Amino acid sequence: MLDLGISKIALIGAVALIVIGPEKLPRVARTVGTLLGKAQRYVADVKAEVNRSMDLEELKKMKDTVESAARDVEQSVQTSASDFEKDWAEVTSSASAESSPWTPPPPEYKHPGKHWRLKRGAVPQWYKARSGVRTKALSGAARVARYRPKPLN
What we know:
Pfam families: TatA_B_E (PF02416). GO terms for molecular function: protein transmembrane transporter activity. This protein has 153 residues and is mainly α. It has helices at 6-20, 25-98, 125-131, 140-147. It contains four helices and no strands. The mean pLDDT is 84.
């Protein structure tokens, strides 16, 4: 683009000082700086818009490819489903043609076992009894009666 060195910028500043004058030069420099900033923002906005439109086009292409792949999968599933339905109709029609009403036997009854509602622990009862582990819950009244001190008569 423009190749501006320090010498060229100094030359432009000297010409501007002579042409514009020292009183108006700061205001003109501020205005030029503001205009350059607006121009840079406008160029950045245009670049961003172009990038967004390019990304949008890429996304549209990707969307089209995904939709076409989904349509192909759907068609293949429908064809395989229709083939399955035809095969199933053939099998069921041949089974009804033989007229053998085979039904599986009911499952045999299995007794759940003794005390099937009780939770079975991993520690055996004889070990709990020997070590003094409580296996039954006591009510409050039963606990008081059990641990009440004996009379000293």
